[in-house]
Structure formats: C-alpha cells, structure tokens
Amino acid sequence: MTKELFQPSAAITSKAHITAAQYDALYQRSISDPDGFWGDMADRITWFKKPTKIKNTSFNAPVSIKWYEDGVLNAAYNCIDRHLPARANQTALIWEGDNPNESKHITYAQLKDEVSKLANALKARGVKKGDRVTIYMPMVPEATYAMLACARIGAVHSVVFGGFSPDSLKDRILDCDSNIVITADEGLRGGKKVPLKKNTDEALKSCPDVSTVIVLKRTGGDVAWNAKRDVWWHDIVDTQSTDCPCEEMNAEDPLFILYTSGSTGKPKGVLHTTGGYMVYTSLTHEWVFDYQPGEVYWCTADVGWVTGHSYIVYGPLANGATSLIFEGVPNYPDFSRFWQVVDKHKVNIFYTAPTAIRALLREGDEWVKKTSRSTLRILGSVGEPINHEAWMWYNAVVGEGRCPIVDTWWQTETGGHMITPLPGAVATKPGSATKPFFGVAPEIVDGEGHIMNGPCEGNLCIADAWPGMMRTVFRDHARFEQTYFSTFKGKYFTGDGCRRDDDGYYWITGRVDDVINVSGHRFGTAEIESAINEHDCVAESAVVGFPHDLKGQGIYAYVILNTGREPSEEMKKEIVQVVRKIIGPIATPDVIQWVSGLPKTRSGKIMRRILRKVAAGEIDSLGDTSTLADPAVVDELLKNRQTPT
Ligand code: 6R9
After folding, report:
1. ipTM for the whole complex
2. Opening angle at CA 186, ends 184 and 188, nearest 5
3. Domain total for the chain?
4. 236 sits in which H/E element
5. Which of ligand 1's atoms lies nearest the C-alpha of 305?
6. Would you say the CB of residue 165 lies under 6 angstroms from ligand 1?
7. Which tens digits make up the pLDDT trace of 83-100?
C-alpha cells in the first residue's frame, strides 16, 4: 500500500496555489530561513502595526514561544472588517439547520453588524480585554458571532462542546475563571433536543462567580430562569449599536482557550494567541484546501473542537471565504444528508472525519450516488488515521476519482495543519498524511529520543516552533513544559506514533500515550477511570482503547467492585450513567468487564499493554507476563473477556 500513489489531475494542478515544482524549494526555505519565510507570510493578514520581530522561540527550558511579538492586530478585524470594501455583500456564512428546510446566508456586512452588536452587549455587561467568556452553544451562526465578538473586544473565549456534561462545563468554567456564559435554550441535533440551558444551570450550582448567562432562543423550549443572572440574547443584543471598534491586540495576546484531554489529570486549557495563529490558520486554509475566491467551503466539525475554531471560523473567514456551518448530523433525516447539503449549497471543498465516512460507507453507495456532487473539488479528512477502505470509498464514490483527498494530521495544540498533502503539489497515498506543511520539521525518535533517519517507525516529535502552536497551558506553564517538552528534551512531543516510508511520506499510527481517540474525540484513560471510580460500588478501574469499526477506537473498562458488591447488568448501566454524567455521552464505555484484580507490576504499575491486548482480542500475543505481581490475574482476564459489539 505504501506504493499506491494518486496524482492530482491537470484540472487541479493548473490553478493550484502551490505546485509540485514549488513545494521543495519553498519547504527548504521555510525550514532554513523561518524569519524570512514567516516574515513574508505575515503580509497575508492586516496589522494595525506590522511586526518587525518574527520568531523568538525556545523548546528548551524555560520554553517560550513568541511570534511577531511587536505586531498589533485584531482577529475579528481580519475575519470581517478588512473584507468589507470588496466583499460586503458576499456570503460569509451559510447556515444549514438540523431541519433540511431551514438555512440562511449571512453576508460579511451582516456579520459585522451581528458581531458588533453582541460585542457591545458584552461590554455593557462589563466584559473587558483579557476576560474569559465561556461559550456553550449549538451549531448556529450565533456561536460564530460569540467567538468573533470576544475577539473584537479582546476577551478570551473558551468554547465548550455542547455534548459535554454539566460537570465538564463546570470544570472548564472554574479552571479559566470565567464569569460569563453564552448558551442557548436548547440545541437541535438529528431531531433531538440538547438541554443546554438546563446543563448550564446544573453546572453553575458550583460556579458562584458567574454573574451573567446570555441565552439564545433556539428552540423556544421551556427553561428555568434566574432573573438575577440570566438574560435573553435578543433582549440585550438587538438594541445595541452596530458600531464597535476593534480592540488593538498584541500578536501574543491570548485569542482563546480550548480544553483538551491528555494522558494525565484533568483536561488542560490549551492557550492560543493572536498573530501567529491568524497567519497560520489562514495560510493553511488557503493552501491545504487550495481555496479559490468565491468557493463554498464546508467543514463538518463542531465549533466546540479545534477543527471548528481553525477551519470553520478563523482560517476561512480571514481569507474572505464562504464557510458553511451545519447544525445537524450525517444520518438525519437520512444517510444522504451530507451530499444533499453539498448539492443544495454547491459546496466545492468538503472536510470531515473518518468516523463519519465509515458510518456512511456501510450504508451503501446509493445514498451518495443519488446526489450530484458535481461542484466538489477537494475532500479533506481529520481527527484520526483514515483506514484504507474508507479512503478508497471517499475517493471513488464521494469524489468520483476527481477530488484530491487531503488527510490533515494536526492537534488542538498545533493550532493548524502540520502534516498534510497540498492538492496540487503532493501525490497522495491512502492512509498517509504525506508531507509536512511549510515550517514544520517532523522528527521520528526511538524510545530513548534518538533521531531516526530514512524509513522508520517511532515517536513523532516536531523539532522547532511554528506560528500556530499553543503558547502555554492556561495558568500552568510548568504543565506545558512537562507534557510536551520533557519526554524528549528540546522537542515538542505529539503523543502520536508515526512511520516514514521510502518516499519520505508520514503515516500516523495513532496515540502512543494513554489517550483514546473515539470518533475523533480525545479522552485520557485517567479521566474516564476517575469518572468510573466515582460510582460508590467501584474499588478500582482501568480503561483502554480497542479497535472499533465505526469509532476508530472504542472504550473498554475493567472494573473491580468493592467487597460485598455483586456485579450485575444493572450495575453496568449505573456505571455507564456515571461516566455520561461526569464527562458526557461521547465518553460512554462500550464494554465493561468485571475483574477481581488488575495486571500490575511488583511496583504497582498497571500493565496496560496486557489490558489492550485482551480488549483487542489479541490473546495469543500477550508478551512477557513474568514481571507481574500475580500472573494468575491474566487467566481471569482472558476467561471473562467481553466481546465488544
Ligand atoms: C485536529 C484534531 C489530535 C489527535 C492527534 C492524532 C489524531 C488528528 C489525524 C490524526 C491520524 C490524521 N489525528 N488528525 N491521526 N491522521 N489526519 O483532531 O485535534 O482533537 O486535538 O486530536 O487526533 O492522534 O494527536 P485533536
């Protein structure tokens, strides 16, 4: 499969931003002369004061990342105001509702008015530059307005995915010390209501410092009301002026915080700043998707994830693109929905996740083939490794062989694409993220941190800084250094395993740390274990991922009950409920296996390797079990193994 190569057509290469002939030289320059390369790239955005200093970064302690440090700009100005002379009446956002009969177009001029009104309303509620604003919203245009309104006045947004539980919302509000929440009465997904206001009320029982909740009326459903704290969006926004000056922000002023799971502890607040992030997301959006003026671009992610931040909102809008926002799900009202939306809005560039592709693939080709999709030009994939079958189907059935697939590898922490094909420049191989983007220096190292050359497999690191990367963990710089720069000194460690083939193509093999990727959503095993352990009857638990046909990875939990507690199906349901309540339905364990002990070394460390093998059904290759404190544990594990369904 490493040899299977797909060349872009002449139709693609003839007008591509970057061609094969340009790629190598430009890549070399970006690595050998980052100041020159990124200095030039800075010109693509609008600065109130142009930066004279470009790169000032160190991956050695004390880790410090600064780009364009004397530049002054505003992200919302770049996404809105600067387009007004040429594009006031061009559509900035197309919103496609959960209900196929609901959609609307928002022009750049309207975007400016809506964002400015909300920004003024926030100011009227006392929000100032640097304050953190929590956004817990459905996929409606107002979610984008909320993000840009914060950016406009220099407030730092923290978007929490609407599928997270009240507990998760509470943790994130408290961690970033936010005293204002923007939400909606209810969300709507696949015809079902999501009780956002109710969840917010629940979360806020433990957040006494939240003094304002702005509630958008989305469904009109009944909600409880706290008159001292809650205000309707329309009551405080509609009367505001459509004029709101953009705050002057330093390039290194924070733009947003986004929580993400790692292998230890609670989710961490990944902090992104303004200048480098805007240059990086706008550049990658234009070059990786080969975005051409006037095209309709659709990323199916939710704005609660980094993909939504960088490639629904900031990258596309900085480029003056038309970005489609979708409220619904791929299978509602039926499995044709994605392709019907493509036809309805004449989508040219479509960006989704392998989990969605797999779910649609198994329903058969008819759902796709009965639609036209003739406008599609480029297809994208993100969130997890894409398996060969899904890639081939996406290419042949969805794209009819004419649309290059960009398999973009990146992370919340990286801000934007890192390893990815460029449609007109890099021939693709199914399942490979191919080559590094400009300015990205991947290194594959062995367990001791030795750099490996040529074809090899090991741990994926990045050797030097790029403008879009995170700057710190909010209020915990030590954790930032510890998590990303201490495993392999002087390098950014991604947590992913990776293989490089004879052609220098990169193949991401998945996480090598204790992070599980379920349908493209990241969870730390420790995070799920601590939720399970909250159940009164649970003594201890261990969670691992296992290969899952649809989700990529599923969640397999080994649970030890307290003495005197009887395992039962009822008890399993209760444990599942606890996890759903503490983290959210997206972290629901697929399998629970009762155990009386866990495989531990004599020093008490759980041997997860064995648990992973048992969960995956690879019972013939358990490896060395002689270092276990009690090797008999393994027999019981195998005897009671649950077959995932
Ligand atoms: C953007 C995003 C990051 C983790 C990452 C890796 C996995 C993302 C991938 C991919 C293989 C791709 N991942 N894209 N693996 N090929 N194209 O997903 O951010 O939610 O932080 O997840 O997702 O394991 O480390 P995030």
Report:
1. 1.00
2. 120
3. 1
4. helix 233-237
5. 20
6. no
7. 999 999 999 999 999 999
